[in-house]
Recover the amino acids of this structure.
């Protein structure tokens, strides 16, 4: 307990955790949705500022909290997208109230859950204690389950139930893996809290029992892999994305998947530190490729626009997992860049998709066409988003995929053929859909979009800038993290 | 250590496992809830015994949490929910009891084969408890797969978590923080479940999740 108290004065980290915790009761108590949407933005904005302050604060560790280069960049990314999504959500929910899909009571709940989820993700990111990390991911998962079911349509309830059951099983298995890791480490480090501290475990990795460590990783892989949406365990993901409110789809794809992958990578670093344990890299590469290829094929024949981009998220998590599985400074660099770019671009796409769905009154792809004549600005944003996500230059996703493919060709030529095939298949599927949605004959409803385009274009601009020019400081940062990942 | 202490530890952990197997073939919802409550009680006894053997007083707290939350509060709440939903007399056809039991036995054998050779460094109590715990986790999964009713599916999930607690107490010196947070998240999970089971009932007039299947994903476009 003393460690917990000692950890508190680390000002910015504490703020990143405290602000959302403070926001939950405040937002749950407010009945005016305009005020609470504004406060939601304010709290998310302040959390983002606190996240930025973490850059300047000294790196530190305690048995509960760790701040290193790896998680700072993810905290900044998470709080930034949390902030921009809260801006987007403020204008989005106004429309949902008008159409009667949500009632003011549910909005109170929605805002409180939004902050609970953001706070829980931050807990998972900065915790050094592997049990605490698990709690963060579990709470974030349960908060999103509630949000996915918020429309209370039969489809939404089905999606939320499936997500609840599969998410719980995943998280249960991850906990079993966590206990196994503790068992291994307590044999070497000695019992108690220090044996659960991630950095202590990594430091002693080579002395841990390799067999038990390997068994633990299998559980962690299946558990957290479910949350990442890797292929055999992905069944919840498309439903949860399609049936929940669009801002939630944006943070699910942009953030929660990243946080789960982050947890998996932390454990990869532990197991990779022990030469006698299983080869984690090969497993991650296999799962990544399976996810990529499976999702690329599934992209064809989707009829629901949010479901389409949910499969695209599986595809991109597959690419990032493949990159981290390959390992080495370049591939890790590509993986980190890909995680970042995918978060920015995919959340931007979901913003655009939300506008489209509200303007056309449907999520059916067949009913969405001719946006370029009815909503020119939205069509431009949507098209740029899709061009960015399929990996065409000059956006950042192109950079990361190019880096990955070029380094992978040198080391795993056969697997790289599959990788490239998957990327090209996905490109074909998405461009096919885009063409019809943008240039087809306009029909059906075409309401004006009242919501703000600002978050959409800010995200796209960032992805564009990253594609053209990465600041030296950022490159050095990613390099040091890539070296950390091994 | 006194061999009798081992035997009692094994007896209690084995009891949790046997109750997991019993969960597999119960076909009345109230019976499923009762078996689950009994499992939680045996679990808390097992954890309490570990507290004595490992002379770890914080495990007493874990045992009490398991007893109060899973042995009393959750089963009581489940009984009330079931009565409120008017399904307490419902008989659920379990997907062929015989094969399910065989699959359950297979899972027990699998977890023993998996854990025994791997956990050779740990002390024997921890090792066998761990095999039991893994078996309870896998049987919980099996219950979730074979049941088609929202309430019994969640009981499968909670019995899976009983296995997690059993594993956590087998690991010597696992900090209390962990167990408290597990108990906490189980509670949240239960609340989430409560909300959903009523929503499912409200929308579909039943808690049979087969009905949900019809609304799965893109299939609705054919309707």
């Amino acid at each position: 307990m003393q460690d917990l108290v000692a950890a508190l004065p680390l000002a910015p980290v504490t703020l990143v955790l405290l602000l959302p915790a403070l926001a939950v009761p405040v937002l749950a108590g407010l009945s005016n949705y305009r005020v609470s949407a504004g406060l939601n933005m304010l709290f998310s904005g302040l959390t983002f500022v606190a996240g930025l302050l973490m850059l300047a604060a000294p790196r530190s560790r305690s048995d509960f909290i760790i701040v290193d280069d790896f998680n700072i960049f993810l905290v900044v990314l998470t709080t930034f997208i949390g902030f921009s999504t809260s801006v987007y959500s403020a204008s989005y929910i106004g429309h949902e109230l008008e159409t009667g899909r949500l009632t003011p009571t549910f909005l109170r709940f929605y805002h409180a859950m939004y902050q609970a989820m953001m706070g829980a993700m931050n807990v998972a990111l900065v915790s050094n204690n592997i049990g605490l990390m698990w709690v963060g991911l579990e709470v974030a998962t349960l908060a999103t389950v509630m949000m996915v079911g918020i429309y209370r349509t039969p489809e939404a309830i089905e999606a939320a139930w499936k997500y609840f059951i599969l998410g719980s099983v995943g998280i249960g298995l991850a906990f079993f893996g966590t206990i196994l890791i503790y068992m291994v480490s307590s044999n070497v480090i000695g019992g108690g809290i220090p044996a659960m501290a991630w950095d202590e475990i990594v430091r002693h990795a080579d002395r841990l029992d390799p067999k038990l460590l390997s068994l633990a990783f299998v559980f962690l892989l299946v558990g957290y892999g479910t949350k990442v949406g890797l292929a055999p365990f992905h069944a919840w993901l498309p439903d949860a994305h399609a049936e929940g409110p669009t801002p939630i789809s944006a943070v699910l794809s942009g953030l929660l998947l990243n946080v789960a992958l982050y947890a998996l990578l932390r454990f990869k670093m532990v197991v990779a530190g022990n030469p006698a344990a299983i080869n984690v890299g090969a497993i991650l590469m296999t799962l990544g490729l399976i996810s990529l290829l499976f999702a690329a094929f599934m992209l064809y024949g989707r009829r629901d626009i949010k479901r389409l981009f949910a499969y695209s998220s599986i595809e991109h998590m597959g690419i990032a997992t493949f990159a981290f599985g390959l390992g080495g400074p370049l591939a890790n660099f590509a993986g980190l860049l890909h995680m970042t770019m995918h978060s920015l671009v995919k959340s931007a796409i979901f913003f655009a998709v939300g506008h489209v769905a509200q303007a056309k009154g449907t999520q059916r792809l067949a009913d969405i066409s001719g946006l370029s004549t009815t909503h020119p600005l939205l069509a431009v944003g949507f098209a740029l988003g899709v061009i960015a996500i399929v990996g065409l230059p000059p956006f950042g996703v192109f950079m990361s995929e190019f880096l990955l493919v070029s380094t992978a060709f040198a080391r795993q030529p056969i697997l790289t053929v599959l990788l490239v095939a998957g990327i090209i298949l996905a490109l074909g599927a998405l461009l096919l859909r885009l063409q019809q949605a943008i240039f087809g004959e306009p029909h059906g409803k075409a309401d004006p979009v009242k919501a703000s385009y600002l978050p959409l274009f800010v995200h796209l601009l960032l992805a564009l800038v990253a594609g053209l020019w990465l600041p030296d400081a950022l490159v050095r940062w990613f390099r040091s993290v890539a070296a950390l990942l091994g | 250590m006194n061999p009798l202490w081992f035997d009692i530890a094994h007896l209690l952990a084995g009891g949790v496992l046997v109750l997991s197997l019993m969960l597999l073939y119960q076909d009345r919802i109230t019976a499923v809830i009762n078996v689950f409550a009994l499992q939680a009680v045996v679990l808390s006894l097992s954890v309490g015994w570990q507290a004595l053997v490992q002379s770890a007083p914080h495990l007493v707290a874990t045992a009490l949490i398991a007893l109060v939350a899973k042995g009393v509060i959750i089963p009581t709440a489940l009984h009330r929910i079931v009565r409120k939903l008017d399904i307490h007399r419902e008989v659920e056809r379990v997907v062929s009891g015989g094969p399910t039991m065989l699959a359950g036995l297979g899972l027990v054998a699998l977890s023993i084969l998996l854990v025994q050779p791997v956990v050779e460094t740990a002390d024997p109590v921890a090792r066998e408890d761990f095999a039991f715990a893994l078996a309870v986790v896998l049987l919980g999964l099996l219950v979730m797969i074979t049941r088609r009713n929202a309430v019994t599916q969640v009981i499968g999930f909670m019995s899976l978590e009983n296995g997690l607690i059993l594993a956590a107490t087998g690991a010597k010196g696992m900090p209390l923080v962990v167990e408290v947070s597990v108990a906490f998240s189980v509670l949240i999970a239960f609340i989430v479940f409560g909300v959903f089971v009523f929503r499912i009932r409200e929308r579909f007039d039943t808690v049979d999740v087969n009905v949900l299947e019809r609304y799965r994903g893109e299939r609705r476009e054919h309707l």
